[in-house]
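ping. complex inputs:
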Amino acid sequence: MAVRPYDPTVEETVEEVVGLLQEVVGEEWVSNDPAILIGYSKDNSFETAKKPHIVVLPETTEQVQEIVRLAGRFGMAVTPASTAINCAGGCIPQRGGILLDLRRMDRILDIDEQNMTITIQPSVRFGVAQNMLRKKGLYAVNPSGPHTAGVATNHMDKGIGMPANKYGVGPDHIVSMTFVMPDGEILKTGSGALPGAEKVCVEGPGPDMSGLFHSSMGIFGVMTEMTTQVYEWPAVEVLKVVTFETEDLNSVSEFFYEVTREDFVNECSHLQDAYFSWFATEDDEVAESIVEYIPRNNAIVILGGEDEEEARLKEEQLLRLVERGGYELMDDSIVEMLSEMIGDITYECKVLQCTMRVTRFFGSFQVVWFNSCLDRVSDLHKKYQRLADKHFRDTDWRLWKEAFPPTEVTVYTQPLEFGRSCMLELDFFISFDDSESVKRGLAFGYDAINMVLDDGGLFDRPYGGYGGFSFGTLQTPRLGTYADLLGELKRDIDPGNIMAPGRLNLPLAST
Amino acid sequence: MSEFNRDPYDPLAQVQKWAYRCSKCSLCKYIHVYQGEYEDPRFVDMCPPGKKWRFEAYYASGKQDIARGLITGQLDYTEKLLHALYTCTQCGGCMSVCAPYSGKDPLKTITALRERAVRDGAAPLPEHEPLLKSLENYGNPWQAPKQKRAAWARKMGVKDADKQSPEVLLYAGCTYSLDANLTGTLQRAAALMQKAGVDFGILGDKELCCGSTVLRIGDRETYLRMAHENMDMLESLGVKTVVTGCAGCYSVMGEEYPEIRKPSYKVVHMVEMLADLVADGALEPEAEVAMKAAYHDPCHLGRYCGVYDPPRDILRALPGFELVEMQRSRDNSWCCGAGAGVRTAFPEFAEWAARERLYEASEHGAEALVTACPFCEQNLRGASDGMEVRNVIELLAESVGLGGE
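pong. complex structure:
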């Protein structure tokens, strides 16, 4: 297929492409009206607002194939988005072109109860999947995000949730994916690669190609179907909160090392006091008052079992561990108070819409997330706190209205894979209402990302815009051959560079 | 920020911070899930125009972007922009989901966008013009002479509230008093009040439109004029209570008027009053109403005013009546599609939304759909392909032996 070189001045061809796209998907599912385009231009990150030239809503894989081929003919960028929920600019089209809004592809195609898999289109949301799976005693590993987030795209983007200590991160669950490649051809990964093979094994034939697509953000193709593993929803669940009065996170890390290695906990996660209070209420004053009841650091632990007896035995094991380590358990009355405010916390942890409460502060909850190991957490937290003090110390943050001061940074630790590693979130809030806040936030973000890189952190999802820089732009130069090879692969697979150009900041001459 | 709007007279100035703070979480698109599991993924969408057209601009989240675009001057009014803005039924689904989590009310942005569109001369839409002219000429949106407003009460022996100083004013509302298919409901409401011994009167042809429609369309100036006139009149009557069967009138008089000034009367919806009368024994439903039906929560009664239980209490009190709860009920309710000038400007879309509701009722095993709002009744009946659409008042009247009046 002849591919035109990428041409950013596509405006003159837009009307022609709109007409051709309408022939593919129907007139009502294509628009280049500015009022439609602006809806895809911004999220609540620092990412500069950028509009696509056209938005198109396909319904089938075949339509996606035709759209991608058409885009290739015109050298027009194609940026896919499923549920379009991303708090780091992940769905913003960097080079205009066609925004492929996949929200009409939202069907559950199959639930294999016996072999514990679900086959879904890219825009099936966690809320729908969990509700359908729960009827069969199963659940998909949640992303610690809202129920409106897409299961397939979150898994592909290395989504991390509370069961990650036991079941791993997003890609660990993926059995098979179907992609429309930049030339419009279909590629299936994992055990789905072999026609007729049962889609149950994660590994495909020989060197597995799945990894190329993990956190690829659509730069190699458009995912239109996924089969993913699901897990048994325990018949009995018990919530416990282990508390740590100390500011130092060493004791939290020690607890996670122990509890994850012993492997009796279904889900666990670390929350600091402010973070916990934000989950509990939408009222700022209430949130601030709750902080007084909540110890500085907390580990949420969910134990599960087939019956009460199993859950009780695990609870006893946890109590022994707590006693041995000299930790404390949160008072039942406080857990009850929080449960009343949040709802069924064990359920919420699988269908987390209370997560969204965090973003209400300034509407600009900012995250620097990366992977490291538990024994680095304490040191990183201290450095991060010092950095926040440096950048925000003299700000009159109350002028920014509402919320906690920006020096009230929080750290969220999520142990992964039996505690071998962890994901860390360095969270802070700025106000997009205030230019000084934005300026300071950008400077802080820049320093925080470099600090993480200097301290051995890894940005495994290297997109996310901070205006002129991102996780990717700062990390990629340090990657050497790895980045070069990825760039070459991108050139080979997508010679026209039409797929989500600019999203991963790869070393490409044409970008 | 320099691009930020500092014009205090711009309706968007009041809501602009939310336009910049929308986190694009998409909660506004779907029903709550924290209330528990749901059975059917077909019935999880909450936003009618969003479900129909799917582009971001048709949801509340996309409206925040439109607001940002208008504030910064990036957007001009296009047909598509106005379509996205005016196909919103202002059902408040987005508000009920977003607010508990974000403290934001996306509906306020939509209201402000419409007010801004009117201020900029881009709206009301041409389709709304006859309605607005009718309000100007006749004092109601239905192009009906004022005198016709009192026709429903002839021979009923109802007090003239202007002359006989009753304790309660039955505010009939334009739609109930002027739509021949709905006046029966009003007559039954009056008959029920008479049977229960309520001291009430009506304003007849002196009654004014509450202003709900112009408010929702975005013509705030006209609304304020109408609201002031209405409040002056209601206060001059000296009534203690204003009761209305119209959910639109109820939410405007009960929720919006008090923002202008504190009224001297309280406003209740007819189903609230009737539920109390049933609970007190003043009305005794005795005749069987053999029916398996779902209750459709009108947006202005439910989400806007929090009245969910009184209509259900009445229905449960009817012998033989089997109440079916749809997946999308109470604050998760799916809008019938009529509100905020949508049925006037986009009748086919309004009918589509109503058909969705009727389908949901049918899928839940209901044989009929019961509601408590004249707009819902009109729209659902118009879209019905056989399913009966009834009003709570009618059913109660039948059960207490007033069905034929």
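Chain B has a mean pLDDT of 92.
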